[in-house]
Amino acid sequence: MDALRAREQLRRRYLFLPDAEVPPDHQGSTGPEASTAVEKKEKPLPRVNIHSGFWIVASIAVTYYADFLKTVKDNFHASSWFPCGGALLLVSLSIAFYCIFYLEWYCGIEDYDVRYPALIPITTATFIVAGICFNAALWHVWSFFTPLLLFTQFMGVVMLISLLG
Q: Where do the TM regions start and end (predicted)?
């Protein structure tokens, strides 16, 4: 009798989609895994947390203590890598702001990556190439610390942008 009951419960499990609510069993409870799944859907993660705050503060500290803006200003015309990196960064940020502000906020499209699947890979590729260009442009200033400093700036910008969308 238990084998028949287990087989019937297994059959019922595959009748419902994973996102659908779990029907109560004969005792009237849905089980502990169903309640945690419902809680996860109802309670969104906070945008501001310790992780994002750490990266934003670290980015501000790098900007201040490494004279980041002054160094960028002084070395902007010294290398042809800087304008290339700046143009690619502008393209990447433009696509990101287009997705966040226009598609998500103005048009109300929350799954823009499903509707426009090429946006995310293009944005990622241009950002990576921009990072390589900036590393090449600033290597003579900070040497082996350049990737670390630029990564900290990158994470600060990403966490700041994630607060928007």
A: 48-66, 86-106, 118-138, 144-164
What the block records as the tokens of 54 is: 């750490």
Residue with more model confidence, 59 or 22: 59
Contact 123, 95 (CB under 8 A): yes
The whole-angstrom separation of Cα 119 and Cα 99 is: 8
Residues with Cβ within 8 Å of 165's Cβ and at least 6 positions away in sequence, in order, are 99, 100, 104, 105
Q: State pLDDT tens for residues 19-44.
A: 555 555 555 555 555 555 555 566 66
Q: Which of 42, 165, 163 is nearest to 109 (CA)?
A: 165
| 8 Å CB contact between 162 and 52 | yes
Each as own residue / partner, the long-range contacts of residues 140-145 (CB below 8 Å, 24 or more positions apart, any chain) are: 141/71, 141/75, 142/66
